[in-house]
Amino acid sequence: MFGIVTGLIEDEYGYVSLNELSEVELDLRAQGYGKLRVRQQPDFKPTVLKNLRDDRLQKFLARFED
Fold first, then answer.
1. CA–CA separation, 15 vs 50, rounded Å?
2. pTM of this prediction?
């Protein structure tokens, strides 16, 4: 699949292996979140990226506009 990551060291985009993502587990108990795993969201509805309310994502996407 194709993915966009914002909020880490730098923003990036590219192809991602869904099998590899399914094996990711983050232990964020020290930050109060517990253990987080990547999983499929059953009620997911596709949307156009420009409709997402995420300032950092929109700034990233604006770099590719004409």
1. 20
2. 0.57
Per-residue pLDDT of the chain (66 residues; tens, 9 = 90+): 888 887 767 888 899 898 888 888 889 899 898 998 888 889 989 999 889 998 988 988 898 887
Cα 66 → chain centroid: 24
Contact 37, 25 (CB under 8 A): yes
Which residues share a beta bridge with 13?
4
Task: Please state, in angstroms and rounded to a whole number, the distance separating the CA atoms of residues 38 and 25.
Answer: 7
Give strand ranges (E) for the chain.
2-5, 12-15, 25-28, 34-37
